[in-house]
Each structure stands twice: as structure tokens, then as C-alpha cells.
């Protein structure tokens, strides 16, 4: 069973997110390498933080990235604050009611079923909220990578959660300047697209780079056998022009008479006499 990257903390700012991502980069915290299974989804709780890498065009299908994050829950529309997106959980069958997680956390004040009670601000405070943050990271070997941080908390219990300041080896981590660029910044998205294009061009240039071989340039990976032409096409020596046989030679060397059958001789004599 996969464990969260860290538990029992809340993400207050992008600096907190960068510290956690940096700890994952340095293998001080685990990177989530696959989607959550059923047991892991049911175990989600307030204070869980997951860091995972997106599988995109550059890092192909054989890599350990995740195509998209799924947790089996239903959320309302996203809300934006700074570079974070926030999603409040809703009941899949009754979107106007609090989530099942929230109903389990709080009891009805009258002892009746929570479905019989109007939705209150207390229900909102108990609903699980998903907080997401995405960055681009330039890697020397893999090129541009896209990492995501997904955190969960309940508004009514957020003050009970710790912070990265409570974890000494994370709080003291230095963050390289410019190491993480927010994926929500349009300029960074364009830079990522251009970097992916340049990365593909560099890969193609490496695969098909021409090299010197026997005095001829041939492709680096794929080469064709040398073209072999038939011998007559390769012979460029001039040939004498063909002409007619000289008349004196023909007069001195008459063509020998060919023997014919008797029937042909009779027909020829008959025709000759008629002329």
C-alpha cells in the first residue's frame, strides 16, 4: 500500500509546497509512482499530501509518471488562490449535500438523519477539500518534467494540522532559485511547450546525426546499402558510330544463293517469265 508523501500537515504557501517537492527530489520523502487503488482512496484523510510526476509527451509511456490524478471522489468547481486550485468534495448522488466523509465526521445536533437537516456552514467546515499545485522542473537527463502536489484538508480541522516548520529536515532545506516554475503561469506553459519541442528536436538530431564512414556521409542509425548499377551503365567509354557496309565490298562479295525447295523455284520462274 502506498503511503502519502507526508501526513498531518497543511500547505500554507508555495514556499511550503517547494520545500516538500525539494525533499522528494532529494529522496528524503517518497514520490507517488502510480494511481491510488481502492484501499488507498478509502484511507484518504485530512492532512495527507501526495507528490507525483505527470507522464507526458517527453517522458513516454514506459516511464513511472502518472497520466492524471484520480481519487474516486466528486468535487465542486475549482477555486483559485495564488497558484493553488481548491476543490470542495460533494456527494456524488446529492451534490447539494455534504460529502459522505463530512457526514461521518459530524453528527446531527437533533439525532436525526443528516439528510433531514438543511445544509449548514458546519457541513462545509467538515467537507474534505483537495488542494493542488503544479510546477515545471528542468532535469539535465530527462528534460522538462511536470510535478504535482495534491493535499487534502477539512476546513474545520485545518488549524489542528502541523506545518513543514514542524519537520526539521524539510524546514531547513534550501530551495535553488528558479528551480520550480508554476505551471499556472501562461508564460511558463509556453516555455514548457517550446522546451518540449526543442527536446524532441535534440533527440531526433541525436538519432539521425550523420557520421563519416568510408568517405561518405550516412545516417547515424539507419543506413542503406551502396547503390550498385549494372556494368553497362557504369561503362562510359566512347563507342564507334555504326554505319552502312561499303558498296565495293558487297559487289566483290555477293550474298551466297540460298537453296529453295522445287515448288518455290517453279513459282519464281513463272513470275519471272510474266514480267
UniProtKB/TrEMBL annotation:
Comp. bias regions, Basic and acidic residues: 189-206
Compositionally biased region (Polar residues): 107-120
Annotated stretches, region: Disordered: 95-121, 180-206
InterPro entries: Gti1/Pac2
Pfam families the UniProt entry points to: Gti1_Pac2
GO molecular function: DNA binding
The name this protein goes by in its record: Uncharacterized protein
Naturally occurring in which organism (per UniProt): Sistotremastrum niveocremeum HHB9708
